Amino acid sequence: MEQIEILETLAYEDKVTAQVRTLEEATSSLWHLHHSLVATRRLLKRHQQSLRLYQRSDGKQAPTATPTPNGGYRHGEAGRNPLAKKPNRCLQGRARRAALCGPGRYAGGRS
User: Fold this and answer.
1) Model-level pTM?
2) What does the buried/exposed string (b/e) look like for 65-78 if buried means 16 or more CB atoms within 10 Å of the residue's CB?
3) Radius of gyration over every alpha carbon of the chain, rounded to an integer in angstroms
4) Do the Cβ atoms of 96 and 106 come closer than 8 Å?
5) 73-75 and 65-67: which strand pairing?
6) Per the count of CB atoms within 10 A, which of 6, 67, 86, 105 is most buried?
7) CB 46 within 8 A of CB 73
8) pLDDT tens digits, residue range 43-81?
């Protein structure tokens, strides 16, 4: 009877380990999706601001920048887009490497 309890405990630990691994993989995949959605949101917000500026000028001049399919901006004669911001650098050091490489795939990370 005691041996069955030991085996059940080991099986439960294996199950929890597998669930943690699955969650880590899913989190990594979701991070990439989140990153893509954030970039798209920024692009649309910039385009929205550009359209508002265009409307305020009564349509006399074209917006200074138009979005491109790859998520960037094509600048017109006016030069640099005044609404453009620097990339968000909120993740630094170990957290940034973990986010970019996935859990346990960089030096200093836990597997």
Assistant:
1) 0.39
2) bebeeeeebeeeee
3) 24
4) no
5) antiparallel
6) 67
7) yes
8) 999 999 999 988 888 766 555 566 666 666 665 544 455
CA distance 71 to 34: 15
Single-letter amino acid code for the residue at 95: A
Inter-residue contact 109 to 95 (CB < 8 Å): no
For the chain, how are helix, strand and coil distributed in percent, rounded to 5? 60, 5, 35
Q: Evaluate whether 83 touches 50 at the Cβ level (below 8 Å).
A: yes
| N-terminal to C-terminal alpha carbon distance within the chain | 34
With the C-alpha atoms ordered 76, 50, 88, 106, is the resulting torsion angle positive or negative?
A: negative
pLDDT tens string 24-42: 999 988 998 999 999 999 9
Opening angle at CA 31, ends 26 and 36, nearest 5: 130
Comparing CA positions, the residue from 90, 55, 86, 61 lying closest to residue 76 is: 61
